[in-house]
Amino acid sequence: MKLFLREHIGIVILYILNFVLLFTIYAVFDGFSNLSNVMYFIFLSTFLLFCYLTIRYLNNKKIYKTLNKKPKNFDEVLKSFGTSSFGRDLNSFVNDLYSLYQYKIHLYIKKQNEHINFINQWVHQMKTPLSVIKLILQDNEDEPYVDDIKEETDKLERGLNMVLYNARLDTFEHDFNVVDFNLRTAASEVINQQKRYFIKNKIFPKLNIEESISIKSDKKWIKFILDQLLVNAVKYSINKGKFVEVNAYKSDSKVVLEVKDEGIGIPKKDIKRVIEPFYTGEHGRNYGESTGMGLYLVNEVCKKLNHKLDIESQEGIGTRIRIIIS
Question: pLDDT for 277-290, tens place per residue?
Answer without folding.
Answer: 887 776 666 655 67
